[in-house]
Design a protein that fits this description.
By secondary structure, this protein is an alpha/beta fold. The chain has 13 helices and 15 strands. Helix content is 36%, strand content 16%. Strand 11 and strand 12 form a beta hairpin. The chain binds pyridoxal-5'-phosphate.
């Protein structure tokens, strides 16, 4: 057992051969050896979808320690949208590493933090004056959005939705809908959190047509009757639900809820941690219905793999928190900020919004074809490079998590990294890097088609 990890391989990034290549079974012997070391040293609560240890990654592939090359349809959960070790991310963060690694922005500031805040003001929806605060993780951003909304409104209640996911810290566990695995045995949870119905078209009792309108009316009625609009500091919502199963809220739902917030002095917070930064074919998913959130939380895709998160929003709301009230030792680390500037540069230079829309066109076509042939696919949905299929028992809408698990395992065994999601665990989701070569996408879909045929 060596003390230091393997020496850093000389070539990563997009120069890696863009191919699926299996030279051992999955996981291979080196990965299995590392899994044994892991089991003896790493807490069981931290688990992995696919216990293949990665050596290098780039473009649309992950190369493991056994020399297998896997097609990446997960992007480390919507993080490496610009690819793994994108040139501008590597260059800018390497320069920053060589200059200095940390001063703590709350002690002595640096330009990169300010530059990221300027980019966020430029890219997020709305022409109003904006401010940002930077953090390390998505959960931390969501917690801070709630702190800020409470300070700005002098109110306490927070409204969230069925199937919502906002993180694993105490407050964000309370905001998250799903018990297992996120909350189970970890309570008590933060108070003053109220959960409302989500406009989930596929499962709406009266069908998808009136779903947006009916769900919004229920939400507004429940807020009025059960919480009192005047007690609500913030409504926190994902414009497309991530862990909840890529549920696209029925059209009209989000604008109606946002309008209600505006009329009642409630801070409307869009949690764009999974949907942001070109993932859905727009900079932010709420642009699709011309929503202008008061606050927006970002993380995941923002910095090409380095840990960074942000809350961005209306200056008068953001500045309600007193000086010294927000921050953290590492929040807006200079290397992570440099990486974010590199990621944004890459998104603009390669027009990754267009890339996401192209991915949608290619993949959704294939997925819809598969849905016609396989009644186990209840619905294909999503936007841009955030696509999913919900699996059911044929002829019903009963969730079929066994099929989702079996398909994911079959894809993994053939060298395609896919993730599952959903309150019922019955959703197979696809989050390819936006720079993935088209032939890898198609090959990934072929593998999936084969697995479906054998199911
Ligand atoms: C991943 C995610 C979070 C939590 O982000 P972490 O960086 O894991 O803390 C919050 N909200 C949404 C919508 C997410 O997808």
């Amino acid at each position: 057992m060596s003390l230091s990890p393997e020496p850093v391989p000389p070539v990563g990034g997009p120069q890696l051969p863009q191919e699926r290549r299996l030279v051992t079974e999955i996981p291979g012997p080196r990965s299995r050896e590392l899994s044994e070391r892991r089991a003896a040293a790493v807490a069981r609560g931290v688990s992995s979808v696919l216990p293949v240890f990665v050596r290098r990654a780039g473009g649309g592939v992950l190369e493991d320690v056994d020399g297998n090359s896997l097609i990446d349809l997960g992007s480390g959960i919507a993080v490496t949208s610009v690819g793994n070790s994108a040139e501008a991310v590597v260059r800018r963060s390497a320069e920053q590493l060589a200059a200095f690694t940390h001063t703590c922005f709350m002690v002595t500031p640096y330009e990169g933090y300010v530059a990221v805040a300027e980019q966020l003001a430029r890219l997020t929806p709305g022409a109003h004056t904006k401010r940002s605060a930077l953090f390390n993780s998505g959960a931390e951003a969501v917690e801070n959005a709630v702190k800020i909304a409470r300070a700005a409104t002098g109110r306490q209640a927070v409204v969230v939705f069925d199937h919502g996911y906002h993180g694993r810290t105490n407050l964000t566990m309370a905001l998250t809908a799903k018990n297992m695995p996120y909350k189970h045995s970890f309570g008590p949870f933060a108070p003053e959190v109220y959960r409302m119905p989500m406009a989930y078209p596929y499962r709406w009792p009266t069908g998808p047509d009136n779903c947006g309108e009916e769900a919004a009316a229920q939400v507004i009625d429940q807020i009025d009757k059960q919480v009192g609009a005047g007690n609500v500091a913030a409504v926190v919502v994902e414009p497309i639900l991530g862990e909840g199963g890529f549920i696209v809220p029925a059209r009209g739902f989000l604008p109606r809820v946002a309008e209600f917030c505006r009329a009642n002095g409630i801070v409307f917070v869009a949690d764009e941690i999974q949907t942001g930064f070109c993932r859905t074919g727009q900079w932010f998913a709420c642009e699709d219905e011309d929503l202008v959130p008061d606050l927006i939380t970002t993380a995941k895709g923002i910095a090409g793999g380095l840990p960074l998160a942000a809350v961005t929003g209306r200056a008068e709301i953001m500045d309600a928190a007193h000086a010294g009230g927000l921050g953290g030792t590492y929040g807006g680390n200079p290397v992570a900020c440099a990486a974010a500037l590199g990621a944004i540069e890459t998104m603009e230079r390669l027009d990754l919004n267009a890339a996401a829309r192209r991915i949608e066109k290619i993949m959704k076509g294939r997925l819809l074809e598969l849905a016609e042939r396989h009644p186990v696919i209840g619905e294909v949905r999503g936007r841009g490079a955030m696509l999913a299929m919900e699996l059911v028992h044929p002829g019903t809408r009963d969730p079929n998590p066994e099929a989702a698990g079996a398909l994911a395992r079959a894809a993994h065994a053939e060298g395609v990294v896919v993730l599952t999601a959903g309150t019922y665990g019955n959703v197979l989701r696809f989050l390819p890097p936006l720079v993935i070569p088209e032939q890898l996408l198609l090959e990934g879909m072929d593998v999936l088609a084969g697995a479906l045929a054998r199911l």
